[in-house]
Protein 1
Amino acid sequence: MAQRTRTPHTATPPARTVTCPGCGADSVYSAANAYRPFCSARCKQVDLGAWASEDFRVPAEAPPADAPHGDPRLQH
Ligand SMILES: [Zn+2]
């Protein structure tokens, strides 16, 4: 009845491309790209800088892992 004909509008490229986290452009994700998943060294540097600054202002909202859960005085 309804026979769908597949129309391959997008041919699979031999090299896998990903979206560059730095600039959003297509980046070749292969061994040839030393900056993968970034497209260039510049984007990688920018992202590393962002992560570094992000790490310095991490909010200390989470309680310490060694803090006892609950009030020990309630445990009789
Ligand atoms: Zn980029």
Protein 2
Amino acid sequence: MPGPNPATITSARICPNCDGFATAAIPAGTRHRDGTRVLLHVDCGTCHGAGTVPLRPRLTMADVEVAA
Ligand SMILES: [Zn+2]
């Protein structure tokens, strides 16, 4: 991982639905007066535009909660 800080345990993971690309720009098929395309920005339905989802708690055989 690049950067000065080592990887640490985080409380979120990359969204499995959008793979971290939380917002898509979709051409609407029309153009503005200046000729640029009209784009619709749509957020991922799973992460709601965040790109990450919270970790699900997992239970071990001993019913001890650990991070997924
Ligand atoms: Zn997502």
